[in-house]
Design brief:
Length: about 130
């Protein structure tokens, strides 16, 4: 077993490997595959192989600078979506607080849960509103 791992390590030496763009491509391929199988789309499995093929090509590539530039552009484009997802995940995991948006300035406000109806005042614009926590 150790010899096989050493051969694989030698094979991957100098190759790009995995990054976030490859992970997203694999997930996208899986989602396309599931959708195509649910709706019985003809040649759907072939369509889902395209993102897999691109991801494997990127992993096996020895052109490190080009692959890292592609990943950097992807990270730049996806930054707002990733920040939004991380913010919602944090709010979902925070069991002691509720999050509200200020009706005037639309900033996110964090208030303690289980306090009944409370008057919330926005520290940014001073708007006051009543919400149930």
């Amino acid at each position: 077993m150790n010899g096989i791992m050493e051969k694989f390590r030698q094979f991957m030496l100098g190759r790009y490997g995995n990054d976030l763009l490859n992970t997203v491509l694999f997930i996208f391929g899986a989602v396309v595959s599931v959708i195509c199988s649910l709706f019985r789309i003809p040649f759907g499995s072939l369509i889902s192989l395209i993102p897999y093929g691109i991801a494997v090509y990127r992993m096996m590539s020895k052109n490190y600078t080009k692959r890292s530039e592609e990943n950097r552009k992807f990270l730049e484009i996806s930054a707002p979506w990733r920040a939004f997802i991380m913010k919602k995940l944090q709010q979902f995991q925070d069991k002691g607080h509720r999050y509200y948006s200020c009706p005037k300035c639309h900033n996110t406000l964090r208030v303690p849960r289980y306090r009944g109806k409370i008057k919330i005042s926005c520290p940014h614009c001073g708007k006051e509103f009543i919400k149930k926590t």
